[in-house]
Amino acid sequence: MQLDELPAELYAAIISHLPADSLQQDVLALTRVCPRSPVPTHSLFEHIRLKHAQQIVQLYRRLHNATDERKWVKDFGIVTWTVDADVLVNLLEILPSISSLLLFVGPSFAPEHLEEIFHKPREDLRFLSLRFRPYVNRATYYQFLKGAYFDTTLTALSRWPPCELSTLSIVQDPLDPEISSAQHFAQPLVFFRLDPISVLLCSAYISSLTRLRLRIPSRQVSRFISSIPSSVPALRLLDLSTCNVLVSDMEGILIRFHDLQHLILDGCGVARDQSQASEWNNIGKICATATVRRAKAREKVLKTWLERNAATTSTPAGMPQPAARRIRPGRRGLATATISFREEPTASEPDIIHVPAGIVIPKVRVVPSPPTLLSLSTSSAFIPDVQYEAIREDFERGWNEGLAQLAAVKSRLYQSWKNGVQMMRITADASGDGYNGLEAIEVEDAFHSGLDDNASLAPPILCLAGSGTSGKHIEGCGHNIARDVWNDMI
Description:
The chain is α/β, with parallel strands linked by helices. Among the domains are: about 40 residues, no CATH class; about 230 residues, Leucine-rich repeat, LRR (right-handed beta-alpha superhelix) (Alpha-Beta Horseshoe). The chain is built from 17 helices and 13 strands. The strands form two sheets. The protein has a ten-stranded parallel beta sheet with strand order 1-2-3-4-5-6-7-8-10-13. A three-stranded mixed beta sheet has the order 9-11-12. The longest helix has about 35 residues. The radius of gyration is 28 Å and the shape is globular. About 10% of the residues have low confidence.
């Protein structure tokens, strides 16, 4: 049997094994070689990558009156920086069933174009990647002078209803060093304010998000992510490469995201001095003990809630409740000093709640969970194998010291549990008040299993190879995992 005599089922089976990047060209070539054969033409539209501006115009003309073929488009991407943004807006308007969307946003885009693209929610969307480069061959401050920033894109997405979006990538390409040095040009701004990041990450639309890549060069984005209690509760993979992220920021991220497994920080400045053993030792310890601080923070929130709840329920109906008053530290007498060397309480500290006499506040402790981090990936200049092994040893030594501290904390809590103190453990994103996301520990075996787990926890995979495939990546590192998720080499 010759190639042009195959049944439609065999053509479909052959097409299913073709690589996605060349699927269109391969299927198109097959239809030309076998023009009278039943080659499934819907494969031409399922996975679309447009690499030239004219292709957008041609595809729009092809699908404008083709109602059925529009629904075949599932994976759609624009991988060129120079397009007619108005035509692209019109094209996306007639494609209702996209599940994967990749857009290169170049200098021809205005914020209004993306606002129009994301004005209407797409319920089928599972993968969204936006890559910004407001310049091509020549750097320009045109967008800055025009006051055109893409903050509204994030706000528009945050208005979408809850969906099953699992993967989100928002990347601004760093300025080419040759352009910046030759033209004395600073990194252009794509997002003027970073507050919309918090708005988006707290929105119902991405509540099921598990993989996030957010690269905004040299900007301090970590506090807009980790300081928001209810942001991205299901996150497993986080890439903040090129952002300004310090070791303290990394600790806040690990404390905030209780199920985070892979953290990628290429070009972020973490561990700036590769030769300092104490720095890598500290990083390893932070990775192991972040759950201790998370448990303490959750315990503090729970205690405040219990006190407030007791103060509220103990007040008879109809009687006004006394306003909470902040108690300043220090003695109060006839002669009160006009100056103090004590630190003033910050605005974030909760007011002291007065509980009426006779009301007993239950003592509840939160037991830290084992760390979940599987890999920590970053980048560094070329280092010899000997130095890398030394860095790895320092990191693992810090990790083991952190596990020992975690085990000691859990051992003390276990003794308190045997003495009758109520113990809770975090089972989900515990960002709310009360017992939200907490579960009582009632069985002794469950408590012991939590202690025993620490001894067998392997340290996270530490990879310093950076993005791309040229470096010496460690098997199972976050770089390799992320490359399969984003399907690119940036």
